[in-house]
Amino acid sequence: MTQLKTQMTTRPTRMRYIIALLLFITVVINYMDRANLSIAMPALSQEFDLTTGQQGILLSAFGWTYAAMQLPGGWLVDRVRPRVLYASCLVLWSLATLFMGMSGGFVALIILRLMVGGFEAPAYPINNKVATAWFPERERGRVIAFYTSGQFIGHALLTPVLSWLQTVLTWHWVFILTGVVGLIWAAIWWFVYREPRDKSGVNQAEIDLIASGGGLVDVETGVKKEAKPKLNWTDVKVVLTRRKLWGIYLGQFCLTSTLWFFLTWFPTYLVDYRGMDYIESGFMASLPFIAALVGVLLSGWVSDFMVKKGLSLGTARKLPIIIGLAMTVFMLGANYTDSSALVIVFMSIAFFGNGFASITWSLVSALAPERLLGLTGGMFNFIGNLSSIATPIVIGFLVTDVDFAPAFVYMAAITIVGVLSYVFLVGKVERVEE
C-alpha cells in the first residue's frame, strides 16, 4: 500500500495541459480580433464608400505595426514574464478593438487598427516561449498544433456568429463585443498563469519530465538571476545571418500569406464577387476554417508520431509543412468554375493545407539559439507577417470590381516559393549556435 502511494505521488502531474488550454483560448481571442475587420468590411466599406484600394490599405493596417513591433516585442519577451506581458498586451489591444466600434471615419479606423497590430505583436513569441518552457520536445509539435488550431476554431465557430451579430446590431458591435471578451480574458490569464516551478499543482516529477525532454523550465529563472543584457547588434546579426533561420523566415512569409488572404479578403470575395449575403457568406467562410482546423490538428499528431517512430526531427517537422504548402495551390481552382460550392471545396482544400503546414513554430523551438528564443521568434514573426501588409494591399490593387482571378494566381506563386525555401534552405534541423 505504501509503495502504491509512493508511485502515485511520483507520477508526473499534467498541469502543462492546462497551460496548453490557456494558450489555445488566448489564440482564439487573438485571431478573433484580427479577423473581425474582414467580417465587418463589406458593410463598413459601403457605409464609408471605400474603394478596393482603400479597403486593402485598411485591411493591411494591422500588419504594419504588427510586423514593425516584432523585434521590440521579441526583445520584451526575453525580459518580461509571460504572465505580465500577455495580460498587458491583451488589455491594450482589446481596448483598441473596442474603440474601433465607436469610430466614425476611415482615418480613425486605420489608427486604431495600427494600435491593435502593435499590441498583438508579442503574442506568438510569448506562445512559443511558454510552450518551450512547459513541454518536452516530443510533445511540442502537438501542443503547438493544438493552440495554433485556436485561430481556425475561432473563425469556424465565431464567423457565422459575428456575421449574424452584424446583421442584427450593425458592424459597430462586432468590435465592441470582441474587445470586451479580450478584457475579461486578460484578467483570467493574469490570475491563472505561472511559470513551471511557480505553478501550484505541479510536482517535481512533471518538472523533471519536461526538463529531461528538452523543455526549458528554468528559462525565466536564468533571466531573473543574470543581468538582463541590452539588445545588441551581435544578437541581431546571429538571427539574421543563419541560412537555416532564413529558410523558416521566408517559408513563414509564404505560409501566412494564405492565412492573411482568408483573414482579410475572403469574406469580401464571397459577398462582392460571388453574390452571397452576409449570413450566407459567414457560414460559407467558416467551412475552410474547419478544414484548416482538421489540418493543423492532424499535422501535430503526424509530426510527433514520426518523431516517436524514429524519423529525424527534420523530416517529422518539415514534411507536413511542405505537403501543406503544396496543397494550397488548389486555390487556383476557383478561377475555373462558376459554382460557389466548388469554390468552397477548392478553398477548403487549400486552407486544409495551410493548417497542415502550421506547425512552423516547432522549428523555431528546435532551431533558435537558446538565449535568443524571443528574438528569433520575433524575427520569424516579423518577416513572416510582412505578408499581413503585402497580401491585402497587393490583392487590393491586383483585383478589379469584376475580376478576382489575379489574386489566386499571386497566392499560388507565393506558396510555391515557400515549398522551395523549406526544401533548399532549412536543411538539417538542429539548434543554431551563437
Automatic annotation (TrEMBL):
A GO MF label: transmembrane transporter activity
GO cellular component labels: plasma membrane
Lineage: Bacteria, Bacillati, Actinomycetota, Actinomycetes, Micrococcales
Record keywords, A-Z: Membrane, Transmembrane, Transmembrane helix
One Pfam family matching this protein: MFS_1
Top-rank taxon, per record: Bacteria
The organism of origin for this protein: Brevibacterium antiquum
Localization of this protein: Cell membrane
PROSITE patterns hit by this protein: MFS
Domain named Major facilitator superfamily (MFS) profile: residues: 19-430
Membrane topology: Multi-pass membrane protein
SUPFAM superfamilies with a match to the protein in the record: MFS general substrate transporter
Transmembrane segments: 57-77, 171-192, 246-266, 286-307, 319-336, 342-367, 379-399, 405-425
Stated name of the protein: MFS transporter, ACS family, D-galactonate transporter
